[in-house]
Amino acid sequence: MLKVNLKRERVLPFSFPMQEYKKVDANRNIVLIDDNLVDLVITEKVIKKFKVNSIKKFSDPQTALSFFKLNKSTWESNKKDQPDIVFIDINMPNMNGFDLLKSLKDCDVFKQGEIKIFLLSSSNNIADVNMSKQCVLCSGYIIKPLTYSKMNLILNVNNPNKYIIKI
């Protein structure tokens, strides 16, 4: 079992190349799901520094799940409108981030590896990190806040193979 010291490391890879990352134009569709409106605004501001097609925000995971289910058939025929990256908070009322991931998998909205789905949480609990590694749809675990450096890293790593970012 891999032991990770969250307090000492700035970036903790689970197999991705360590290299210099430069700003890229991210012509992508982003979805943010977080019940904390301040976190939504901060995350949106960081993402807007990059060229993106759209940013959809949800403060309720049930509403986000309905949005995904409703648009599933549209995205199957037109991939350009499908989200490229989804950020999901873990600790939300009624349905947490892990429950949302399970629901997305159960209703077959996204196929594994089709889009990048990141859990974005203020928790640095190793149990949460390990649980995220078990989620088939989860691309990685990011400790809040999302920063310019973290977003740049996400956009530059093509196959992250489950990683945690703390910068």
- Give the beta-strand count: 7
Q: How confident is the prediction overall: mean pLDDT? A: 82
Helix content: 25-40%
- By helix and strand content, what is the structural category? alpha/beta
Radius of gyration: 15 Å
Largest sheet: 7 strands, mixed
Approximate shape: globular
**How are the strands ordered across the major sheet?**
1-7-6-5-4-2-3
**For the terminal residues, how far apart are their CA atoms?**
23 Å
Series of H and E elements:
EEHEHEHEHEHE
Number of helices: 5
Strand content: 15-25%
- The poorly predicted ranges are 1-21
Spell out the key features of this protein.
5 helices; disordered N terminus; 167 residues; 34% helix; alpha/beta; globular; seven-stranded mixed β-sheet; 19% strand
Overview of the structural elements:
The protein is of the alpha/beta class and 167 residues long. The chain is 34% helix and 19% strand. The protein has five helices and seven strands. Strands 1-7-6-5-4-2-3 form a seven-stranded mixed β-sheet, sandwiched between helices. Helix 2 (61-77) runs parallel beside helix 3 (97-106). The chain starts with 10 loop residues before the first strand and ends with a strand. The relative contact order is 0.21. Mean pLDDT is 82; it is low at 1-21.
Which SSEs are present, and which pair or pack?
Elements: E1 11-12, E2 29-33, H1 37-47, E3 54-58, H2 61-77, E4 85-88, H3 97-106, E5 116-121, H4 126-134, E6 138-143, H5 148-156, E7 163-165
Parallel strand pairs: 2-3, 2-4, 4-5, 5-6, 6-7
Antiparallel strand pairs: 1-7
